[in-house]
Write a structure and sequence with these properties.
The protein contains six helices and five strands, in the order E-E-H-E-E-H-E-H-H-H-H. The protein has helices at residues 20-27, 54-57, 74-104, 108-135, 141-165, 169-204, and strands spanning 3-6, 9-12, 36-43, 46-47, 66-73. The chain is elongated and about 70 Å long.
Amino acid sequence: MLEIAVNGEARWSQSGPENWGQVLNLLEAGQGSGRPIVTAVRFDGVVVPTFREPAMLGKTLGDVGRIEVETSTFNQLVHESALAAYESVAPLQRAVTRIAASFRGSEPNAARHDLPSLTAALQGLTVVTAMLTSATGAVGTSRAEFDRLAGRLCVVLDDIVECQTQEDWSGIADTLDGPLSSALKQWGLVLLALNGASERLGEVTRAPLRPETAW
């Protein structure tokens, strides 16, 4: 008999699912933001990172004795993503301050090498925030503030490129310490608001991490 453990809670399959795809469908049954979502799978202790790929969905389970799965919910994933994004703002602010100081000091070349990583981190933060804004259905103040911040970031990046072209290192430092630092402070507030939106969403449609699935 196949043993299936959901978030560490063992249960036995009585209906005998024919393949992994059927098990996955049962595990993720439900509606709304409280619907369970499988985030990790192990077959007999072996991690299966491709558990959503078509070839794996059709896998028969005759040679599998135990399936372990970890689940979350849509709302929990949004909450965790918003929290992680918020916690990334402070390190970014410290990096901005450090790079600006390098441009003003005797190490502009080292600061120039740090700019691509900083730019990539800012772009990543923008993408994540946009996804969170969409996922939480944010409207009104949060949505408008994010749109303004995204526009400000584009201006900041354009200014940095222009200063680089002119080798105006003090100009880059002023842009980092001024407009960018200010925008990051506002960014943190937007992410806190989005995190609050995800928590309110979860209060309406909250589901347990261990769904009572009938096997």
